[in-house]
Amino acid sequence: MLLTLAITTAMVACTKKDEAAPPAADAAKPTADAGAVKIDDSKLPGVNRFQVADLDTTKDACTDFGGYVNGKWLAANAIPGDRTSWGAFEMLDERSTAVQKQLAEKAAELPNATGVDKIVGDFYASGMDAAKINSQGINPIKGDLDAIAKLENKDQIADYLRATAAKGQNVLFGFGAEADFKDSKNNIAYASQGGLGLPDPTYYTAADKKEKLDAYEKHIGNVLQLSGVAAADAAKQAKDVIAFETRLAKVSKTSEQLSRDASLYYNPVSLADADKLTPNFPWTKFFESQGVPAQKMFSLAMPAFHQEVSKMLADVPAAQWQSYLRFHTVDSASPYLSDDFVKENFEFYRKTLRGQTELKERSKRVLDTVEEQVGEALGQMYVKVAFTPESKARMETLVKNLSEALKVRIEKLDWMSPETKKKAMDKWAAFTPKIGYPDKWREWAGLQTNRDSYYGNVMAATEFNYKWNLGKVGKPVDRTEWGMPPQMVNAYYNPLQNEIVFPAAILQPPFFDPNADDATNYGGIGAVIGHEMTHGYDDQGSRFGATGNFENWWQPADAKGFSGRTDKLIAQFNGYEAAPGAKVNGKLTLGENIADLGGLATAYDAMVKATAGQPDPKTDGLTRDQRFFLNWGTVWRRNFKPEELKVRLATDPHAPANFRAIGAPSNLPAFAAAFSCKPGQPMVREGDKQVVIW
User: Are 495 and 9 a contacting pair, CB within 8 Å?
Assistant: First the structure.
């Protein structure tokens, strides 16, 4: 996939129904769009808001804060069969999906629909037509498989790679437009690594992941058999595919390396110099084949990876290339083909790899595809019924208050010189917030959809989106664009545009509730706002300046002091054991942990200022400060399947939720004061162990 730093620095999102939760006056409670769609509230799952009854008073908040605030809820809320994790994010995702389903069903029923109604309606109707999809079997990709079978030499293989890439079907590497690291107002092309079917390069070489590698080999053989390859040949070809991908893995950067060094994405080269690096895969010819005018330079990220691909074109037999390409062609198409392909895809990627026990119902799978392929089209419908002007206005106030609190915190830093502090303030002043949905919607003219083929619609959108993205190369950045659709339960910071973005779907409890007190909202969405702002000053965000350019704005002594403080945070999270013998990777998760710590501290300051002079109502026997921290804990209540947890520990730049619940507050004196914690208790980090950064 193409580099998108906005997403790599995003909060984790995910999703189901809480039967006990009231269906609620929520921030994103659907409202009728005048003269259009009306949403049936009774069909929507509830939300997961903080309730005093959830507290386990047999536990001490200062000793086991996670158990105190979430233990009872986690014990009572098993992970649904069609999920690999379950908590606040997943429940909101389930609610958003329920709204989307009603919208998609109504769009599919519209006669003579046009615009986004037709696109969404065609996608949903074709995806829900199981009988037609099953009758088509493997036919939708037969032409691609026939083309692969004819490949005989490196030139033909290179031609095939270029031709399929031009349709947005590039299995080997990511290619697309993104802002220039050194000139963030303009887009350039980026090429990045790819080509692997497993979550991380370490899965091909690490002894503790051998079981998953073996299961992947079996899956490859099963997929090849489904495509018509005889069992014995499929088993042999599967070994060839594993050998092929292992070679790629050995020259690929790991999740930890990519998350902790943004510079890996930026390697500007001329087309002529790139051609010399990869003589068997000339980039001049690739740009031409993609319809992208020749550029003075582009970013050939992870050059060693691309050099290895060039070598493999010369020394890997054509038959092995065919096995690799055949498998990935079928595997990537499987979710959109007949039931036997869907089942095999689920059995490995969801069940074996992540522990999911049940396949999602078809409507949810189709809506996942709609969001992935034409998410903003569906988003136009979503915000008309699920996001109020009042919510946006309240959010704007919260963002302003968090921004002011962050400014004060930066101004008061005692470890930063005036020179660096001025640059930090310049960056603060340039933050751009985006709330709810885009001011300007994306155009979909030219995307042709129908009810004839679900796979055909997916491929049409894939090619359309790819060409839309490539159309940005060499042009100014459109700062009105969003990196997420409004119906996604998430938020992100984009360092290249220095912007913080909050889609409509996250603006619900436990994050945001217009009927809740300030403590609850500041401990929820306030901390999320602070989190995204602090991403601008985490170990990677701090490498980008006020305009979004990749630049060093630090005085050497300040950079050293910052590193010393972040090293302590790495050590803190390295000490957390997620499962027997499996520790959290403090380096992999550093950016998110910095953002959590700064975001929570900033949100607390903002709450104190917003409620200054007001009496503390002590609701349900809890003080304002206690409710602030308890809602923070509620946000991070989450159960994981053991298999899912293993994948996340290896690849996810976010620490498991239970450690996010305790990691940041244990460094804040305000938490200790709120619960009358004593020195030496687990939730009180003191002296050299206390981490103070922003």
Answer: yes
Measured distance CA(621)–CA(506) in Å, rounded: 28
Residue 344, H or E segment: helix 339-345
Gap between the Cα atoms of 56 and 58, Å rounded? 5
pLDDT of residue 27 exceeding 50, the answer is no
Least confidently predicted of 162-176, 361-375, 388-402, 447-461: 388-402
Whole-number Å distance between alpha carbons of 251 and 204: 12
pTM more than 0.90: yes
- CB-based contact 37:381 (threshold 8 Å): yes
Question: Are residues 208 and 504 in contact, defined by beta-carbon separation less than 8 angstroms?
Answer: no
327: left (phi over 0), alpha (psi -120 to 50) or beta: alpha
pLDDT digits (tens, 9 = 90+) for 556-611: 999 999 999 999 999 999 999 999 999 999 999 999 999 999 999 999 999 999 99
What is the 3 state secondary structure string of 540-607?
Answer: CHHHECCCCCECCCCCHHHHHHHHHHHHHHHHHHHCCEEECCEECCCCCCHHHHHHHHHHHHHHHHHH
Whole-angstrom distance, CA of residue 537 vs CA of residue 428: 10
Q: Packing angle between helix 154-165 and helix 142-149, nearest 10 degrees?
A: 160
Backbone angles phi, psi at 620, to 5 degrees: 55, 30
For residue 424, list its beta bridge partners.
none
Confidence of residue 46 (pLDDT cuts 50, 70, 90): confident
Q: Are 661 and 542 in contact (CB under 8 A)?
A: no
Contact between residue 244 and residue 315 where contact means Cβ atoms under 8 Å apart? no
Q: Which of 605, 431, 421 is nearest to 526 (CA)?
A: 605
Query: Cβ of 594: how many Cβ atoms within 10 Å?
Result: 28
Name which of 301, 247, 311, 235 is nearest 274 in CA terms.
301
Show the tokens assigned to 211: 């079981």
Residue in the block written with tokens 């031409």 = 288
Other CB atoms within a 10 A radius of the CB of residue 212 amount to 21
When pLDDT is cut at 50, 70 and 90, the band that residue 288 belongs to is very high
Nearest 5 degrees, angle CA 370-CA 375-CA 381? 100
Cα Dmax for the chain: 79
- For residue 326 the two structure tokens come to 């055949």
SS3 492: strand
Tell how strand 174-180 and strand 492-494 pair up. unpaired
- Kindly state the tokens that stand for 362: 């078809």
**Which stretch of DSSP H or E encloses residue 186?**
strand 183-192
- The helix/strand count (H/E) of the chain reads as 27, 11
CA distance 281 to 264: 21
Name the CA radius of gyration of the chain, rounded.
Answer: 25
Structure tokens given for 271: 């087309």
pLDDT in the model for residue 36: 60
